[in-house]
Amino acid sequence: MYAIVEVGGQQFKVKKDDILLAPKIPGESGNQIQLDKVLLTSDGTKVTVGNPVIAGAAVSATVIGAEKGKKVIVFKKKRKKNYKVKRGHRQDFTRIKIDDIILK
Length: 104
Known about the structure:
The protein is mainly beta and 104 residues long.
């Protein structure tokens, strides 16, 4: 059984015991969270598609910890104008473990 879940504006295909790196989710390490935006579920034979989400469906997960992604460098330049700007940032992520897919 798998589900497609929306977390932080991104969609992930998850199944039980998967570990995924999602955009930052509030919560401390070890906390249980519910992901309510389930867009699609499948048990191998039957596929259920939401419009836009499936009512009553949820995915329960456990927060493993917070991490930072790789550094992204943003470099802007306009030639012949002596304009150069170099900036960068590191995105915050949360590593979560999928415990169960709950249907109504």
